Amino acid sequence: MPGVQKKERKGVAKVVRRPLAAVEQAVDCIRTLDPRPGLRYNKEEARVIEPDVAFVKQGDVYMVIMNEEEVPQLRLSPTYKRLMARGARCTTAGGSSRPENWRRAP
User: Please, are residues 3 and 15 in contact by the beta-carbon 8 Å criterion?
Assistant: First the structure.
């Protein structure tokens, strides 16, 4: 392909062992092709992905900066809201109320 890109058709014809006219015809055919064929099917603009956090070095210290514009809102499930309204507490077999120790009952 580098020979085609540099328009060195004679060199390409020699490498592929084809007549120069055949190479010219192939290049003309290639030029008619769509370089981005997927755009016909995807009419939406590409979405920009923004990170939740950025790490910035200031001197010898790294700072963590939150992107607070795109932070999702916290939502509680209706089931959990009902449990909390009744005063239920989640506990493990050992009686811990710490979330990292919670698990479902069998």
Answer: yes
Q: How many CB atoms are located within 10 Å of the residue 73 CB?
A: 4
d(CA 51, CA 48): 10
Between the CA atoms of 23, 29, 30 and 31, what dihedral angle is there, to the nearest 10 degrees? 110
- pTM (2 decimals)? 0.36
Cα 10 → chain centroid: 42
pLDDT 10s digits, 32-88: 998 888 888 877 777 788 888 889 999 999 999 888 776 677 788 888 888 777 766
3-class SS of residue 53? strand
Name the residue ranges covered by the structural domains of the chain. 2-34
